[in-house]
Amino acid sequence: MKRKINIKVRTQFARAIYLMAAGFIMLLPFINCTGKASAQMQEKPRIIVTCDPELDDLNSLIRFLLHSTDFRIEGLVYASSQFHWKGDGKGTVSFVPGREYTRNGLHLDSMESWRWAKDERFIHDAVEAYEEAYPNLKVHHHGYPTPEYLKSKIRYGNIEFDGDISKVTPGSELIKSVILDDVPGTLFITAWGGAGTIARALKSIREEYENASDWAGIREKVSNKVILCLSGDQDDTYAGYIKPNWPDIALHQPAGGGVGLAYNAQVFARPEHAFYYEPEWIRENISQRGTLGALFRVWGDGKQMVEGDIFDYFHLSGYTADELREMGYIVWTPPREKGSWLAEGDTHTFLNLLDNGLRAHEDPTYGGWSGRHRETVASEGFMMGFGRADEAMPDNFFPAAQNELAARFKWSVTPRYEDANHHPEIDAPLSISAASGEKVNIKATVTDPDNDAVSVRWWQFKVGTYNGNVVIENPQSALASFTVPGDAKPGDTIHLILEATDNGSPALTCYHRVIITVI
């Protein structure tokens, strides 16, 4: 195997030398967005997902499983939040002031549980639906993990009460073990509900090692390894435990831009993108696509995560908000047409980790399908940035993300490779060094596994340290030429994106980011 990889690298190197001699600047390594990467491509991002039984968590989980080709999944963990907690089954009651059971005209007292179904198993349900689709999915991408592997990563975390981290749980122990293992690289840990199970894992590490002679080293290892991707502080455990006790753990927060997938996202959609939220598109591309599509929640689908939940009226259709209130529901978002888009409120925590060629997981400021992130450490506090505009972000990521989702749903019900569409592939340099005023030529090779026609365009992603405009002379060709601006200073970076879109159905887009460093 080593010999084969070395031959490939030498072949690419020889090709690069040839092209450099011909006037093209090319640097190794090469990469594409389909998982068919060179030997020098980074490993898949390691990730642990924690989530509570909110319906948008289920939808985010289904998209995540369809994109499981792009991750090394280390955990799928049930979590609680202020919105969902199970109770201990022993009659113990809990009350936290200001929670939703005291809002919207409700004045409830201490309770044994809150909005948690008996024998809740939505993660298991999603993985079992994936299991039925797996024979088809693996035909279209070799990187799908086996259902047995995914099942081995499911755990129940700290689900008994809102923000309770007093107990060690199977979920917290799994997180602890992965944090402490010796696998190199970053570990991304998401919280789609509360961060209580994550906090418990960190608390267990601190309790076990804080009096040990190597505590400083362990704490540094954990702080350097873990990046938290949280959908808010839904049980106050970030502010209450993680921030004061692990102040150097990095936190990726949304800081503007990105695709609109949360509740009411259709309100803010561009007119030309509105059809992606409408029943016809959802029915054709999601709801009718096998077991995973049937599980995906849409407006008026007749389902409830918890039977009788007064906050969950999404299973109903044809009623006005006032009529729903008369039926006893707390109407916190306006009802929509049957079959319409509902929500994927937590998808933003992993979209930038996808292997789509944008390389957004390398640096939170690079930007990707979930926008640009602001990296902080716990000591700096938690700032949510949902809905903020970002002038650097392009406006075309949403169609690409939705078409990608539609294609993967189609994979799940299509047993033959030739009967579905697949991504274009790009070979091009990742980085270039050039002087101010220097003309640069970049040659990319773009192919398509289905022999579809592919349109390409180069564009400047204004996320580098150079804030001026770069004029690309031939942006609709795989060969791009530009002159490094004269006011660019040594050390400045310029990000150029090659975007390749095929004419398959649905059309699929692949990207390639080239970072130019001014010398």
What do you see in this structure?
There is one protein chain. With 519 residues, the chain is an alpha/beta fold. The protein has three domains: 127 residues, Immunoglobulins (Immunoglobulin-like, Sandwich); 250 residues, Inosine-uridine Nucleoside N-ribohydrolase, Chain A; 62 residues, no CATH class. Helices cover 27% and strands 16% of the residues. It has twelve helices and 15 strands. The protein has a seven-stranded mixed sheet. A four-stranded mixed sheet has the order 9-15-14-12. A two-stranded antiparallel sheet has the order 8-11. Strand 5, helix 8 and strand 6 form a beta-alpha-beta unit. The two termini are 37 Å apart.
Instruction: Provide the gyration radius in Å.
Output: 24 Å
Strand content: 15-25%
- CATH C-level name of the largest domain: Alpha Beta
- In total, the number of strands is 15
Number of domain modules: 3
Fold-level CATH name of the largest domain: Inosine-uridine Nucleoside N-ribohydrolase, Chain A
| Mean of residue pLDDT values | 90
The helical percent reads 25-40%
Question: What spatial order of strands do you see in the largest sheet?
Answer: 3-2-1-4-5-6-7
Uncertain segments: 1-32, 34-41, 383-387
General form: globular
Second rung of CATH, namely the architecture of the largest domain? Alpha-Beta Complex
State the CATH superfamily name of the largest domain.
Answer: Ribonucleoside hydrolase-like
The major beta sheet can be summarized as:
7 strands, mixed
Overall SS class: alpha/beta
- Tally of separate helices: 12
Order of helices and strands, N to C?
Answer: HEHEHHEHEHHEHEHHHEHEEEEEEEE
